[in-house]
UniProtKB/TrEMBL annotation:
Coiled coil: none annotated. Gene3D superfamilies: 3.40.50.2300. This is ABC transporter substrate-binding protein.
């Protein structure tokens, strides 16, 4: 009788063992990864590509479900609900609203954010001390606004700075408030124009361009998605433009561009995904910030400088990663 019981227990253990051995998804059909991005524009597209390229180079197998919420909050929530219903192994939110939607809807699987300027203000982390248990971690694209703006002021010496920001996006509001404070410290009058979607960006630029000496565009996905229209308005008015998103500066008449290469942001986001899939807890990763100057790129458009009769100090030119002159882009090593 005892031998029969032992045999029965052994058979039961064999039958249920796959449930407890937790075979990896890649061993069968690959990890199911859902990626939701705010809108399609060069910076966010580069992040998405960087994530996939990095993960596909790890030797693990992945199936990517790529979704675009087109700057619609309701769509971002619907995508999050779809990912939850599909039982994705891990989800990624590129930019604030998609990441917030994923964090709200999905609490039992890892949520990774990419390119969130202020994860704390966005409600994606409780603090930066990694003291709270969480299923959320990711990469911040916080720029050194004070250094950027004061360098810009050194070049263009404005009395008044204009900025367009998205009033419904936490990152946009946070950067606007910080830029306003930096302007006050430097005795520069600050003029802001709020938008709620990309179709309003050109009109917002037109509404303030006659009252400013220079224009500044921070990392704001809605505004950056319409950056050609801002460039057009500024050049028509003879106003220099500082676009912090280098990825979207190709082909526009910016004066200065200084920020991340967003493909690199995607690669770093992919590394967070890999760390989690290899067993590291999101709590122990938290919000990752860039602090290496080499991860930032400084661009100058000398053609725009010539048109606007602006002289750029030689030390800044010497430190530039990219120079545009005579319609050609030169990338320095």
């Amino acid at each position: 009788m005892n031998r029969r019981i032992v045999l029965l227990v052994a058979l039961c253990m064999i039958a249920v063992s796959p449930l407890f051995s937790q075979p990896t998804a890649e061993a069968s059909k690959g990890y199911e990864i859902g990626i939701s991005k705010m809108v399609s524009h060069p910076a966010l597209d580069s992040i998405e590509q960087g994530i996939m390229d990095y993960l596909n180079g790890t030797g693990m197998q992945f199936n990517f479900d790529l979704q675009n919420c087109n700057a619609e909050i309701a769509t971002a929530i619907a995508i999050a609900q779809k990912f939850k219903s599909d039982n994705k192994d891990l989800v990624v939110g590129i930019a604030t609203p998609p990441a917030q939607a994923l964090a709200q809807v999905i609490t039992d699987k890892p949520v990774v954010f990419g390119a969130i300027t202020d994860p704390l203000a966005a409600g994606l982390v409780v603090n930066y001390d990694k003291t709270e248990d969480t299923n959320i971690a990711g990469i911040s694209d916080l720029n050194p606004l004070k250094l950027q703006l004061e360098t810009y002021f050194r070049i263009v010496k404005p009395k008044t700075l204009g900025m367009i920001y998205t009033s419904s996006e936490a990152n946009g509001v946070a950067q606007m408030e910080l830029a306003k404070s930096i302007c006050a410290e430097n005795n520069v009058t600050f003029v802001a124009a709020a938008v709620s979607n990309s179709s309003e960006v050109k009109m917002a630029a037109q509404s303030i361009v006659g009252r400013v000496d220079a224009m500044y565009v921070a990392i704001d996905n809605t505004v950056v998605s319409a950056i050609p229209s801002v460039s057009e308005v500024c050049m028509k008015a003879g106003i220099p433009l500082f676009n912090t998103d280098t990825t979207s500066s190709d082909g526009i008449d910016f004066l200065m561009s200084w920020g991340f290469n967003y493909y690199t942001v995607g690669v770093e986001t992919g590394k967070v995904v890999e760390r989690i899939l290899k067993g590291e807890k999101p709590r122990d990763i938290g919000a990752v910030f860039f602090d290496d100057p080499a991860q930032f790129e400084l661009w100058f458009n000398l053609d725009t400088a010539k048109k606007l009769n602006i002289s750029i100090p030689q030390d800044l030119l010497d430190g530039a990663k990219v120079l545009v002159q005579n319609g050609k882009k030169t990338i320095r090593e």
